Amino acid sequence: MQLTDRLTVLPGVGPKSAEKYLKLDLETVGDLLVYYPFRYEDFKSRDVLELLDGEKAVVVGQVVTPASVQYYGYKRNRLSFKIKQGEVVVGVSFFNQPYLADQIDLGEQVSIWGKWDLKKAALTGMKVLAQAQDDMQPIYHVGQGVTQANLVKLVTAAFQVGYHQLLEENLPQVLLEKYRLINRQAAVVAMHFPADIEQYRQALRRVKFEELFYYQLRLQVLREKTKSTDFGLSILYQQDLLDDRIKKLPFSLTDAQNRSLDEILKDMGSPRHMNRLLQGDVGSGKTVVAGLAMFAAVTAGFQAAIMVPTEILAEQHFASLTELFPDLSIALLTGSMKQSEKRLILEQIADGRVNMIVGTHALIQEGVSYHRLGLVITDEQHRFGVNQRRLFREKGEQPDVLMMTATPIPRTLAITAYGEMDVSIIDQLPAGRKPIVTRWVKHEQFEQVLDWLSSELEKGAQVYVISPLIEASEALDLKNATALAEDLQSYFKDQAKIALLHGKMKAQEKDDIMQGFKAKAIDLLVSTTVIEVGVNVPNATIMIIMDADRFGLSQLHQLRGRVGRGDKQSYAILVSNPKTESGKRRMSIMTETTDGFVLAEEDLKMRGSGELFGTRQSGIPEFQVADIVEDYPILEEARKMAAQIVQDPKWMDQADWEILARNLDQTSRFD
Q1: Which H helix or E strand runs over 448?
Q2: CATH for 157
Q3: What are the tens digits of pLDDT across the range 573-629?
Q4: Which of 238, 317, 355, 669 has its CB surrounded by the most CB atoms within 10 Å?
């Protein structure tokens, strides 16, 4: 008898039914033992006076009227009878199960599992139980051809034969004692058939820790392996020059900026290859931190380059860096440059006359050779493919890599999504920045919004208007946006110059319109697409989002972040009549906070990590029992423990190491 035995060793499973179980990834008895229920039905009998409307429960009572079946239409019928519990008489109905009448005897006690209707004081039955069952019944995910009853029967058979006794402990004794976890065999039994809710909680706690601990341990092992083999440059920057430059800034760095810069500089100074993500909310000052890191590389005699997804962003970064470091030689390299201009810049990059280079993916094309590239930065790193990032890293001799993103990743996800990377977070806005005032209005109030807009336009304000998002059709998006632009033009007439930006435009057309908006040649910009992340138009102070409930919280926050980039008061107006509770909740929370990390956390709770990130694309695993939002404290503790174990091998005895090695399939690390 072994855990690798095929399911066909269990009674009632032949070769054909075994194929059906394969669809659930159940091939062996070992697979079956750790195929846990996703919830339980509590079959403890309840007093009907305690039940809430719509609650599912077991009700036990004496049958006081004969069971009768009423037929109405083809194969449609209702079985009805009444039961008495104490002094309360309850009506019971079963739909399309006439055969249950044989189990209902006048004067006898009966146990019904059903859904309580408070108004009717009646129960819609789902199951007649053989007797009152004071236990918790497991509910599993099932597939075509596999029923709950089949699966429960199969799991029960595996336990009756004693297969669970073959399960070996996969957590070291020192961890079981430290966290007061029950042993593995007891946990697996209680996950399927808990005696009570407390036993189930203990089993669930143990299984969640086990799952998250091994995930984090694999990440930590991977990190250590990378550290030991991935040697890069040691950039010995001049601290005094950097300190002097920071003092000359026209503003003070926030604590979060200082902390992030210190983390980046420490990585740059070490011989280990830097692989760090810098994430910060819109307007948090990532560009300054990146610029200072680039300056540090220059003081050590290296070149530094930053790659961004669009030309308008490249021009923006170029302007920012030129303003910060007027004494340095900074080059801009984009695809649309004239050949003669590009040739000259390529020569300057190759012979080292240029200290910093800003550009689009033109930076990684053939023909671009660097003199002594020490630091490469990708901004909005998720916009570049893996190959593009790899090509950038391969320029020069293993330069340090810093990735940046303005998309707030929930704290609960950062250590999971980027477990193999180091993460620096700027979660503070610069002092003096005015929070964006956010208002939610219904469609019927839009006329008042237009009146207010008219007065703001008179004062010289510029406005973004985002048209409704219709995921199913780009053509409908464009039609809606065109109609919206026409309506606004008809309302404002000569008071406002209005332009339309949409997904079907060529990149150059989009760029021209954004440049026109930046130059104040356009007052009101109607767009179907999310305005480019990071685009800086300080004079744009109003963002209007039509049918805002069609967007997720993170999208709404990114859109809102296009305004509030200057010293004027900015506004975001959400126009929406949400029909769902979650839509109303999204609108409310947008008016309550401007903290992108808080919003990202809420978005994660409402939508789940898979939907927020696209689980396959992001590399975030789908855990069987753990939930990375609800179980964040366990995840964080598992991460700390995994890091401690990997960084200090002497901490555990040989027997404990052997358990970890056996269950990690990473024996070479633990020899």
Answers
A1: helix 446-458
A2: 1.10.150
A3: 999 999 888 889 989 999 998 888 788 778 777 765 554 444 433 445 567 888 776
A4: 317
Same domain, 419 and 473: no
Which is nearest to 652 in space by CA: 166, 167, 177? 177
β-pairing, 77-85 with 540-546? unpaired
Angstrom CA distances, 610 to 413, 598, 615, 623, stand at: 11, 18, 4, 11
CA dihedral 646, 648, 650, 655 (to 10 degrees): -20
User: What confidence tens digit (pLDDT) does each residue in 325-336 have?
Assistant: 999 999 998 888
Give the tens place of pLDDT for each residue, 139-187.
Answer: 888 877 788 888 888 899 999 889 899 999 999 998 999 999 999 999 9
Q: Do 163 and 174 sit in the same domain of this protein?
A: no
**Domain span including residue 71:** 44-134
Q: Residue 271: inside a domain, yes or no?
A: yes
Would you place residue 135 in the very low, low, confident or very high pLDDT band (cuts 50, 70, 90)? low
DSSP 651: G
Same domain, 569 and 546: yes
Q: What is the C-alpha separation between 168 and 185, in angstroms, rounded?
A: 8
Q: CA 636 to CA 425: how far, in whole Å?
A: 16
Domain count, the chain: 5
Residue 606 lies in a domain: no
Query: Based on the domain organization, do 375 and 258 belong to the same domain?
Result: yes
Q: Any idea of the CA torsion for 262, 264, 269, 273, to the nearest 10 degrees?
A: 160
For the record, the structure tokens of 40 come out as 């339980």
Residue 534, sorted as left (phi over 0), alpha (psi -120 to 50) or beta, turns out to be left
Segments of 266-367 assigned E as strands: 275-280, 303-307, 330-333, 356-359
Write the single-letter amino acid at 241.
L
The domain boundary residue, chosen from 382, 398, 426: 426
Task: Please indicate, yes or no, whether residues 271 and 395 belong to a single structural domain of this protein.
Answer: yes
pLDDT digits (tens, 9 = 90+) for 255-275: 999 999 999 999 999 888 887
**CATH for 112:** 2.40.50.140
pLDDT at position 429, please?
75
261 & 403 share domain? yes
- Whether 550 and 493 share a structural domain: yes
Cβ proximity of 541 and 561 under 8 Å? no
Any idea which residue has 């846990």 for tokens? Answer: 36
Mean pLDDT for the chain overall: 83
Q: What are the DSSP calls for 526-575, one per residue? A: EESS---TT---TTEEEEEEETGGGS-HHHHHHHHTTS--SSS--EEEEE
471: left (phi over 0), alpha (psi -120 to 50) or beta: alpha
SS3 at position 405? strand
pTM equals: 0.61
**8 Å CB contact between 561 and 532:** no
Tokens 């011989």 — which residue?
Answer: 271
Strand, helix or coil at 457? helix
The three-point CA angle 410-663-212 to 5° equals 20
Asked whether residue 604 is domain-assigned, the answer is no
Query: 387 and 526 share a domain?
Result: no
